[in-house]
Write a structure and sequence with these properties.
The complex is a heterodimer of chains A (110) and B (112). With 110 residues, chain A is mostly beta strands. Chain A has no helices and 11 strands. Classes of the chains: A mainly beta (110), B mainly beta (112).
Chain lengths: 110, 112
């Protein structure tokens, strides 16, 4: 079974709006990571947040982590059409096994 | 360019055939892994390796074998292909846990 479950499964927004995606997981983690996948392509690492961190920023990305609720969120601010992709959370439980969620498909309309 | 290289990019197999998906990285990463991605399922871990000579099973290992004779290479072998193995396969590697994984561009496999 998959560790992370993402919500929503699909999201459609207008260019310039913010996009928020949520991820829940089941077991203790060392860190949580977010990846982007453009259609038909490989995954690209976006950001990593450690279990002792609560918030992290990278450009237009903001990630939060609540280990008590076993959940994380990814916020993309001022979205662009080029942000259209699938976004996956993945958890690392210290064994180097990276377990992925099912992903959120984001569509940014021009 | 440094990264993870997967070959072939596309492959069609007949049921019962065997083949090897190749994965090579030139970043001197110790940890490598294989995932399969099916529509709507996200990525599922098949096998992984924490270093040369060491491999272990992931979530869905049945029907697949791996070996790690060198740090650079981590081939995935399909022993007797089945239609259920139709999927996109990704190889990934990481050097230290402070950074994210580097993924290859994938192999799209169809078993007929």
């Amino acid at each position: 079974s998959q560790q992370g479950e993402e919500d929503p499964q699909a999201l459609s927004i207008q260019e310039g709006e913010n996009a928020t995606m949520n991820c829940s997981y089941k077991t203790s983690i060392n860190n949580l990571q977010w990846y982007r996948q453009n259609s038909g392509r490989g995954l690209v690492h976006l950001i990593l947040i450690r279990s002792n961190e609560r918030e992290k920023h990278s450009g237009r990305l903001r990630v939060t982590l609540d280990t008590s609720k076993k959940s994380s969120s990814l916020l993309i601010t001022a979205s662009r059409a080029a942000d259209t992709a699938s976004y996956f959370c993945a958890t690392d439980d210290s064994s180097y096994k990276l377990i992925f969620g099912s992903g959120t498909r984001l569509l940014v309309r021009p | 360019n440094a990264g993870v290289t997967q070959t072939p990019k596309f492959q069609v197999l007949k049921t019962g055939q065997s083949m090897t998906l190749q994965c090579a990285q030139d970043m001197n990463h110790e940890y490598m892994s294989w995932y399969r991605q099916d529509p709507g399922m996200g990525l599922r871990l098949i096998h992984y390796s924490v270093g040369a000579g060491i491999t272990d099973q992931g979530e869905v290992p049945n029907g697949y074998n791996v070996s790690r004779s060198t740090t650079e290479d981590f081939p995935l072998r399909l022993l007797s292909a089945a239609p259920s193995q139709t999927s996109v396969y990704f190889c990934a590697s990481i050097g230290t846990r402070n950074y994210g994984y580097t993924f290859g561009s994938g192999t799209r496999l169809t078993v007929v």
